[in-house]
Known about the structure:
The complex is a heterodimer. Chain A has helices spanning 5-14, 28-42, 71-81, 138-144, 162-171, 181-201, 240-243, 251-258, 277-289, 306-317, 336-350, 365-373, 385-398; strands at 22-25, 47-52, 64-67, 85-86, 96-97, 100-105, 109-120, 125-131, 149-154, 204-215, 220-222, 226-229, 262-265, 270-274, 296-299, 324-331, 356-362, 380-381.
Amino acid sequence: MKIHEYQGKQLFARYGIPIPKGYPALTADEAGNVAARLIEETKTPVVVVKAQIHAGGRGKGGGVKVVKGGAEEAKAVAGKLLGMQLVTHQTGPEGQKVRRLYVEQGLDIARELYLGLVVDREKRRIAIMASTEGGVEIEKVAAETPEKILTEHVDPAVGLSGYQARKLAFGLKLPEGSPDPKLTVAEFVNVVTKLAVLFDKEDCSLCEVNPLIVTKQGKVLALDSKINFDDNASGRHKEWAELMDKDEEDPVELEAKEAGLSYVSLDGDIGCLVNGAGLAMATMDIIKHHGGTPANFLDVGGGATKEQVTKAFKMILSSPKVKGIFVNIFGGIMRCDVIAEGVVAATRELGLKVPLVVRLEGTNVEQGKAILANSGLRIEAADGMGDGAKRIVAAVRAA
Amino acid sequence: MAILVNKNTRVVFQGITGSAGSFHAKQCIAYGTKVVAGVTPHRGGETFEGVGPDGAKIGVPVFDTVADAVKHSGADTSCIFVPPLGAADAILEAADAGCSLVVCITEGIPVTDMIRVRRALEGRPVRLVGPNCPGVITPGACKIGIMPGHIHKVGRVGVVSRSGTLTYEAVGQLTGLGLGQSTCVGIGGDPVGGMDFVDVLKLFNEDGDTEAVMMMGEIGGNAEERAAAFIKAHMKKPVAGFIAGATAPPGKRMGHAGAIISGGQGTASDKMRALEAAGVRVAPSPAEMAVTLKSLL
């Protein structure tokens, strides 16, 4: 689960990580008011109006505006940003509608750094990456100049040690050019140490500060925040429900999630209903292998009920782009009769206007096949996943 | 021989009175697995009932702690069906009680918990399979987990996979061609787990009962690339492979917590290339996994 920059910064503030002064705003009027308040509080005329969407690259996409002309100008800028479709390299060509803004004090920036915390799967530790190349896409730095990324791993038994934070600070040459080198290094160490604690306590899967800035006065602040939470930990973070912005989520994927299903929308026209994530991916692959294109990834899981299967099948049936459906089940825990009942129930309700190929294997396969055969629906039975994929691709082509 | 589990393996089920735990404990008992104890706190003293492959009733004593269970039953292996937020604790409890193998089926354990678990297990004589996995089976001898036992056949192909149902698919194809399996290991779909491909390949490499290996990987991380490096340098037996997720879009989690392409890393094509370069024969489609393996024999 992703949260907005301003929500991440509120979390930073709670952990004692310095952030610029700022306030969220949902309307242009509100943005004008908080801009006036910021100018008053900071005694500087510069504010920054930032579009809040769950995607990176907002600055380049035109979603971050520096305003030097006071509160009225901030209000005008906010009016233009709100409601725009902001396109960045992470949103896709259609962009994401801007519904929230964050208005922040302007600062005198001396240096922009990159700081990111991720799970290093190979080392099985949290990795802290720091780079002098702040404000740039870190993937690009990693690909072109990997030597510019410094990495330290957090030992879960002892936490991040002070020397590790200092290694990063001196590795980034933080004392150079700072009016107060000791202050700059100390502030950086403070930020990194607290971020490592935050990552663990708040169950993040990603925590990025890009850029982390050093001001002309030598102070260190988080100018941006990007936090993803580990969905597996939602059971111990009731507060996440309030942080979720449903406008930023794919409505179909959200609907699936609420029904306990795992669903990802894709660009193709063959809907898939599969049990198990690996088999679901393999089913998409084999459709492509035989010249078709999958419309979705859908894993009904191992222990789905008839209601969940019905819900899943309805989601596929109601998608306008779906020209054919392939149900591929290898029942381990999942019983084939439950799948068949769900498919029939959904079809009774919504009707079946496209070809349907079903491959059933595993527990209660005979009952499952009988339910489908007795349903009176036009269902093509497949013998194995290869046969099933060929049949659905052929049926969609013929239609 | 086979690897990890055999007919002498003595299993304690953690979470044996829960709905999934009790269902699968019964299935394992029916397969012939020696389920010698169960654990559910506050349920110690009860008896869990199952029916063995010969139709005889089998009573399994339930204990409050794994330490008690191991002491009284001589269990050496644990199978965990504890809900996600308690599962990390369950793994540590099994390790502390002296189990040398812990198979964790639970899906949805927070990654920070698994990071702590891996740190706590460092240097200890315990192997962890999973979490978020179907378990381990040595056909005809011992089934620990949720895989359907009947699709397996005794034989000489080692199977290792990050996925559950895709493993069943591969096993079903192998059995269909008359190729039995020595042991099948589901290492799980989480970003941080227990044994990885290399750990399992090492065991298959030294196992006299294993003649060839079928491995199924998927997008995300670099476990397949590390497996490829091991295979190139050390593997004495032929390996066939498949990587799921060639059509998966970047940045999207495909069901498994670990199945995500991030920052251009962890794509199926990179993994296939690495495996092919290491001499692994990669199946062109998931319908041809067993046929591909057979072509190596």
